[in-house]
Design brief:
This protein has 170 residues and is mainly α. The chain is 62% helix and 6% strand.
């Protein structure tokens, strides 16, 4: 069994905004977020999980290894975090659409997340034919949505100026 090296301090420093809520402190210590705690627990479970090297070697090029390659219960973290993350992302998009806030942008982002989730979900069902194409399309859709969200809104011409420029009826 081959083990992966633990994360370096720079990795922890880069990912610290994910797991430390710096805005609220109690007794001088930063408050830990549930996502951060779950991420650290998942990382520990994966790092400590036994790996079946034979199943890893049997995976053909471009295909993910069999489900049993990572032994133990580490896969449950991936299922839980991916499901919750997808539900929050798509649910947040739908919530914003229902509230009529940035509808077009949220349609792009939500549909991209759905495409990525469906394409990667197919790998666990045994179909890997469209994984990379689905991920590419989904990421492109989400990127488009985020770029549209960053774009400044179109400038509307002031009504008073429009009335001044309009010809007067004779």
């Amino acid at each position: 069994m081959k083990r992966i090296a633990p994360p370096t301090p720079i990795t922890i420093q880069i990912t610290s905004p994910i797991w430390v809520d710096r805005t609220s402190k109690r007794h001088g210590l930063p408050k830990r977020s549930p996502l951060g705690v779950a991420s650290l627990a998942a990382a520990a479970a994966v790092l400590l999980a036994p790996v079946d090297v034979a199943l890893l070697g049997a995976a053909t090029s471009g295909r993910p290894p069999a489900n049993g390659a990572l032994e133990g219960h580490a896969f449950l973290w991936a299922v839980a975090l991916n499901t919750v993350g997808t539900a929050f992302l798509i649910g947040g998009s739908l919530w914003s659409i229902a509230r009529r806030r940035r509808v077009v942008q949220n349609l792009w982002i939500g549909s991209g997340a759905a495409v990525v989730a469906l394409s990667t979900g197919l790998t666990r069902a045994g179909d890997t034919s469209f994984v990379y194409l689905g991920e590419l399309i989904g990421i492109a859709l989400m990127f488009t949505g985020f770029r549209l969200a960053d774009a400044p809104p179109p400038r509307a011409e002031p009504r008073a100026a429009a009335h001044r420029l309009a010809p007067r009826p004779q």
